[in-house]
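Section 5.1 Outputs to date
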Amino acid sequence: MKLKAIEAPKTMLGMSVELTEETIHERLAKVKANMVQSGIDTLVIYADKEHGANFEYLTGFIPRFEEALLVLSQTNETFLLLGNENMKMAAHARIPNKAIHVPHFSLPNQPMDPFVPLLDLLAQAKLDGAKTIGLVGWKKWTTTTEKNETLFDIPHFIVKAIQDCATDATLISASGVMIGNEMGARILNNANEVAHYEFGASLSSTSILNAMNQIDVGKSEMELAGELARLGQPHTVISIMATGERFQYANLYPTNKKVRLGDKISLTCGFKGGLSSRAGYAVSEAKELPDGQEDYVERVSGPYFNAVVKWLETVKVGYPAADVYQMVEDVLPKERYHWHLNPGHLTADEEWMSSPIYPNSPHTLKSGMIFQIDIIPSVKGYAGVSAEECVALADASLRETIRRDYPELHERIKERRRYLREVLQIDIHEDILPLSNTVAYLRPYLLNKELAFVNE
């Protein structure tokens, strides 16, 4: 590991790629197959603005400020239960459906007429005849102290109405149908999906690099955060642009606070398909660091960079997920660096879908997974460090399909891999496809726009 004046990566912005009809059919088939495997005759998928990804996976939209249900049955009937302001979306959904108006899902004080009890509306979706109903919120429960199949992350009034409607049915928690590591329909992506999600990954990394390039003493958090809003696209996380101490007055958002020399800096930006983040100091060189923190590179950011390098040079299709976790523990021990989340998780329409990487995981990494490299050390007395970015895993077959069907994406991936190998000197495996522009690009001194880590 060495700090060196190098060229920055190119800001190559991907194209917005729509999901094809073939992809939607493939998605629906995977979900239906998982229902059969799980013994579920009816699947009920809940959605709201923050938890709409499983619903959107098949419908193509989220219900925004309302709630919604997608009801799938083995008889191939599909119902969309929608509030006042989303009924119009049923006609635009990516899968054929019958729409049922549910005013209960609308905003407070909006019209509830014609009033029909929720119990009866659920009966219109034929839930009263179901035998085994799988409820999908957004979590796959993995506790070791409770019955995970009986934990429901859906509003109680909906669960209660389903129980009252389907009195003879067994209700089970079924988010594993969508995001479970052993069978989840959403954990693997085809070439069309990789191209679809690369747009957001490249957008987030472009935004982060632009913001990093604008950091200077005297600029406000809000001014810099303006670089993190791009092309009218919705964020998957709250954007972070914080200088100095974070969370003053419990605040999560950029303020008028101005950058001062020596400040800690945190930046995060996420769009559908990927998130980018950086953390460091508003300094140009080590001697400008706060007292007692002059060894930040040696103590914190350098070891972190080495862990990211090890991740990129180790991970490949077929690699045991448990070994990824242990590898990070070996090079960046938790006892000293105090990270505690999964060092790599799956991403898609939401920033964090799920993760196969955890202690003693029985899973292997598969072609079609899209990962955030997410290692978060926390060393007391120092600023944080982060270079969270997005990569896909692809075997030879998937790589060839991307080359054939999405040649411009293929060229962007080639350039990103070239930068990693030739400039950052990281020997990434051929299975890793960088979807972000700034994978492993880390500048600890954020006022110095040239100095970054290389693997020397």
